[in-house]
Automatic annotation (TrEMBL):
GO terms for molecular function: oxidoreductase activity; zinc ion binding. Pfam families: ADH_N, ADH_zinc_N. This is Alcohol dehydrogenase, propanol-preferring. It comes from Corynebacterium timonense. PANTHER family: D-ARABINOSE 1-DEHYDROGENASE (NADP(+)) (PTHR43401:SF4), L-THREONINE 3-DEHYDROGENASE (PTHR43401).
Length: 353
């Protein structure tokens, strides 16, 4: 008789996920079966099942198990896998690529040249992910956690790695005294971004959001906060003496936040659009935008950066803010995320804490 397990599945576009019984997987050659410790619920999951239309990204077509922020303990290894002991804790690098292009070779499967060959964008993104009791992952995607808490670490796989990659890219703009960084959007990514900026730079950190609770959390982490409102940009620029900020990290990515980023930036600033919102309505004009500012997008991060991020966790330089939910209440967590009622990260813990 086939052994089964519970899993939260993406079953259709514009359709809420379902908790279903599915066969417990077994690892193939070069793969590892993990007993899931934690799996973060991400806004990109919500975008996929709630906003995407069929044919937009064929690699994400249902059905599969959600969850691309995964940590767990080794349960079983497939043929050709050595050096991994049962019970050891690992964080999972979520992206999967073709494995043969230059981007994959450097550990940046997010920018794989031939994603269609992989058949999926990643674990939980076209391929079965971690919103389940067990998950099969490529052995090369495992990042050792050592004595770090795997549940706390799970959110780092995206909510930590994505801002870390964006901030590392912008470090030249923040190198020097008197620098200022702006974080727009204080969800799971934004709050970790505040901590990463504090650990990696000496910049003054300004954080903005519409939620009082999020602003309070950012202030507790050392940021100067500005609420969303008519005087938002004016207040941000006042904090910089009118010069504008040196680097902006927009973790929302809608037209209004991109416009705020452009209006808040100073001459020569880096403006990183990290959020997956539709920023097509951003208000840009030559004279109203800072000269020589660099506007660019970033997506996720690389395997080597995830190793660095785990080391920051182990050294106490970052501490993810999260709330745990049992797998049976995972759908409730997604509904709260959909309703904008999650502070920090919602982490599903299939086997308890």
């Amino acid at each position: 008789m086939t052994e089964t397990m519970k899993a939260i599945r993406h079953v259709g576009y514009h359709t809420f996920p379902e908790l279903k019984d599915v066969p417990k997987p077994s690892p193939g050659p070069g793969e590892v079966l993990l007993k899931v410790a934690g799996s973060g619920a991400c806004h990109s999951d919500v975008a996929i099942f709630n906003e995407f239309d069929e044919g937009l990204v064929p690699a994400l077509d249902p059905e599969y198990t959600l969850g691309h922020e995964i940590s767990g303990w080794v349960e079983e290894v497939g043929d050709g896998v050595a050096g991994l002991d049962k019970g050891d804790a690992y964080l999972v690098y979520g992206p999967t690529g073709c494995g043969r292009c230059d981007m994959c070779a450097r550990g940046a499967e997010t920018y794989c040249r031939y994603p269609e060959e992989a058949g999926a964008n990643g674990l939980g993104l076209g391929r079965d992910g971690g919103m389940a009791e067990y998950v099969v992952v490529p052995a090369g995607n495992l990042i050792p956690l050592g004595d770090a808490d795997p549940i706390a670490a799970s959110a780092l796989a995206d909510a930590g790695l994505t801002p870390y990659h964006a901030i590392k890219k912008a470090l030249p703009a923040l190198n020097g005294g008197g620098k200022t960084a702006l974080v727009i959007g204080l969800g799971g990514l934004g709050l970790i971004a505040v901590q990463i900026l504090k650990a990696l730079t000496g910049a003054t950190i300004i954080a903005t959001d519409a939620k009082e609770e999020a602003l309070s959390s950012a202030a507790d982490l050392g940021a100067t906060t500005v609420p969303v409102g008519d005087k938002q940009v004016e207040q941000i620029r006042e904090l910089t003496g009118g010069r504008g900020v040196d680097a902006v990290f927009d973790f929302v990515g809608i037209g209004a936040t991109v416009t705020t980023a452009l209006r808040s930036a100073g001459v020569g600033a880096d403006i990183a659009i990290v959020g997956l919102g539709d920023g097509s309505a951003a208000d840009w004009s030559f004279r109203a935008s800072p000269y020589e500012a660099r506007l660019y997008s970033t997506y996720w991060g690389s395997r080597d950066e995830l190793f660095e991020l785990v080391e920051m966790l182990r050294r106490g330089q970052i501490e993810p803010l999260y709330t745990t939910y049992p797998l049976e209440k995972g759908l409730e967590a997604y509904q709260l995320l959909l309703d904008g009622k999650v502070s920090g990260r919602a982490v599903i813990v299939p086997h308890g804490e």
